[in-house]
Amino acid sequence: MAAHSDSGRTTEQIVSQFLSKALHAILAARIPYIHGPTPPPSRHPRKRDRWFHLALGDPPPALEHPSGLIPNGVMEPLVVDILLSPRDDPTMPEAIVERWVAQCEAPAPWSPLHSPAETSSNSFLVKRTYKKSIILLRSIYSVLRLLPAQRVFKMLCASNQSYNHDLTYRVSSFAEPFSRKEEAEFQYHCFAPVETQSGQLAVSVQYRPSLSQFNLEISSLLPPMLITDYVGSPAADPMRAFPSSPSERAGTRSSTSFPLRGSQHGQPSTSAPASAPVFFNRPHSWTGGPSEVPSNRAQHPNHPPTGSYRKPAFNFDEFKFSPPFYMSPTPSPPKFSGSYMQSPLRSETAPVSIPQPGSSKVKVLRSPNLSDPTRNFLPPPSPRSARTTDPSSQDSDSRSFRRPDGLRTSDGYSNMYGTPKGLKDGRDDSGRFSLSGSPRFTFSRSSSRISVPDDLDDPDFSYPFAVDDVDSSDSQARSNDGKEVSDFGHASSSHKSQDAAVGVLVHMLRTAAPLRDSTYSSQSSKSELQEEGLGSTSSFFMSRKASDALEELQSYKSIKEMLLSQSKGKLH
Amino acid sequence: MNCEVCELKELVVEQFEIREVLRCILHTIIFHRALGLVRPRDINCELFELTYVQCGVPEVEKEIEEKITEFISKISKHPNRRSHQVCLSFYETKDKQPAWFSSKTERVYWERWFINLQITNQRVNMKPNQTKVGFDPGEKLSSLEEKLHRTALETSVRENLFQIIKFVNEKMDHLPHIPPNAEGISYPYEITILSSSESSLDMLKRMLQTGHQTTLS
């Protein structure tokens, strides 16, 4: 039970606490998030909750000191206006949807309460007053849920919706009279008064029976505004800091205090409510700061500072901490447009590194054999180079030697991943080649190339397929590599979808140190290699390189033919 | 002590609406009569755009649900009866002179609430959210009728609730003293189901004559 027993309470204390609790109940049922973004946790009822046996939880800060509500005593009426304010249009007037009036009216001279009573009857009256106040408060609590504004309150409290109106309030000690027209729009409900020693405690409410005229609609998450940091703009800052917690955000908005009108009546505004910031937080709205509003309202001569505020003109800066602003500009990096094309390539060619001397990664990628991943960076062979390779394919020995690998190559290629369509297009063999890096591909070829891994481990090893034309020596291979690159570059020009990727590969190959070995030979070594066959060791090696290159080319052709046949088969 | 009686306006309900309607009314009455410390709970009606208040005492909720279930099962056994009544009574327990074959305590009722329901069986087997899809104009009319009925019932329930609030505010002098340190329910109560053949006045007469608690099987 409360610390004060029933008999210990005075009438004035009861009335004062009643007004405070009534105001608490009204605001809690009408103003969304009056307690802040997060509701206060339920806890054991405090002394304050035990007043009138109705636990409403922690009151809003403005109600921490109920004496501030009625500085002139309990006889001062308490008028609470609930307003529906347009959110996106500050010029539109706000409308009162409910007006609650609670007042302790002085007893009539002929009333038995007017004359002083004995102590025992005082105690009886106090107890009876308190009991009836309990019921009256319950009735107010119930009626709040039955009036039309309750529906609006529920809608506004919806966590994921933002409406075009806000519910605000205004507390004052006198009621501005309605016009006749306004009066006709309201219905009136009066609660039975409670007799007290100080008078009759009367509560009444005027309410609009219908709120359909306000066209309460869901508004967009963000009001119309000019977005300066749109995605892709130079002002976009993806590294903008998020606020740490909702409470901090609430704190930034709770700095505004709304002195109650009643408290200002005849007293400076620095009275109790000044220490009681009242704010209206809607964590999902993330609207403009309330800091602008009080100054606007305070400066307006006809608008005394009230406990309400309206959303000011939109201030973009206020949004910089708002979650929706983080959500709406999706973190796609258009400002990195230059890398946009590169990034998928990079992601797809990541397993295949740029050949660098002494690079272990490159070694790994090179490791098995001639199925050198670095070849994959090479642009597709030019038609001329492809034709030049055709004679080599006519070599039965090389063909028989190469074909199985070509098949395996096709298997490997068929299992390649992440091949962009653009690179598959047309020059699918070369495109796939440029993206292969699949270990499966390399391993599939390892069986046919025993000596090659050793060569591949050599940092100075020239990638045989780096050149289209087979060279008899390393230098020749490397020089052909450069030629092949140029040929590839020439060929790639005919395929726009592969040009960018091929160009990147070519660039990487060109900048790779081993590829620029001065020992590169001319193209003549290629034909020499073809003529020499597999005789001498070095020539054999070079021929192997050239043969591998030719074999690769053949494999690409076979892959291409296979894919075409498959596509034809699917169509039929 | 006077026994204040409040006869609420009759509500025309369908069978599937009984539970929600009775919840609204019973909880609202008890919320205004459970004068011990309560932590109120707002409950949004499932069928109507209506919010009512519960006193937040689990035992009360449980008993109300049980009584509503009992009421529904009783009316299902008597489908021909249309009018039914639920009575919510508040009483005090007083000692009386011990006598043979009588209890030592008696219940003195100081307030009674009669909730009058008229059950319609138009769509007994239809679920509340069941929608009909068809091209028959009659079916469309039934959905319109259902909507009208729902709107009218919501209005009637709201009127009932305002009637309750008006009554509890006007009639306070007969309330017994609130027990000290009361938590939740301050006054004992009971919920009884009256048959349609027995009116509330008959029940009151019988109770005043016998002075015993009246329970119906």
TrEMBL record, chain A:
Domain of life: Eukaryota
Bias-annotated ranges (Low complexity): 436-451, 521-536
Entry-linked Pfam families: ATG13
Domain Autophagy-related protein 13 N-terminal: 93-210
GO annotations of cellular component type: Atg1/ULK1 kinase complex; cytosol; phagophore assembly site
InterPro entries noted in UniProt: ATG13, Atg13_N, HORMA_dom_sf
Keyword hit for Phosphoprotein: no
Gene3D superfamilies from the UniProt entry: HORMA domain
Region (Disordered): 238-311, 333-496, 516-537
Gene Ontology process terms (BP): mitophagy; piecemeal microautophagy of the nucleus; protein localization to phagophore assembly site
Biased composition (Polar residues): 244-273
Comp. bias (Basic and acidic residues): 396-408, 422-431
Region forming the signal peptide: none
Presence of the UniProt keyword Iron-sulfur in the record: no
Keywords from the UniProt entry: Autophagy
PANTHER family in the record: AUTOPHAGY-RELATED PROTEIN 13 (PTHR13430:SF4), PTHR13430
Name the record gives this protein: Autophagy-related protein 13
Naturally occurring in which organism (per UniProt): Rhynchospora pubera
Classification of source organism: Eukaryota, Viridiplantae, Streptophyta, Embryophyta, Tracheophyta
TrEMBL record, chain B:
GO BP, sorted A to Z: autophagosome assembly
Secreted listed as a keyword: no
Keyword Transmembrane helix belongs to the record: no
Pfam families in the record: ATG101
Listed GO CC annotations: Atg1/ULK1 kinase complex; phagophore assembly site
Superkingdom per UniProt: Eukaryota
Molecular function via GO: protein kinase binding
InterPro entries: ATG101 (IPR012445)
Keywords: Autophagy
Protein family membership: Belongs to the ATG101 family.
Protein name stated in the entry: Autophagy-related protein 101
